[in-house]
Design brief:
Blueprint (H helix, E strand, L loop, with lengths): L1 E6 L4 H16 L4 E6 L2 H6 L7 E4 L2 E5 L5 H9 L1
Parallel strand pairs: 1-2
Antiparallel strand pairs: 1-3, 3-4
Helix pairs in contact: 1-3
Length: about 80
């Protein structure tokens, strides 16, 4: 099971990112953990300057926008 961290302040884009990851995983029949990280110090540990950002198993794979469905599918399938 993959662990996704959505890094951001809790803005609408961050919430949408988390919901989209959960929805796509559910559509594919995969179980994932999606954690929302809103602590600025924790976000800075990832050296992320634009949010929302997404980390999978501790590695940042996206930042600055809501990821598209195809991108999320590729993360889930890799």
């Amino acid at each position: 099971m993959k662990t996704f961290e959505v890094l951001g302040t809790g803005c609408k884009k961050c919430v949408t990112t988390a919901e989209t990851i959960e929805r796509v995983a559910n559509d594919l029949g995969q179980t994932v953990t999606v954690e929302k990280v809103t602590d600025p110090a924790k976000i800075m540990e990832y050296q992320v300057m634009s949010t929302p950002a997404v980390a999978i198993d501790g590695k940042v794979v996206h930042s600055g926008s809501i990821p598209g469905r195809d991108e999320i599918v590729s993360w889930l399938e890799s």
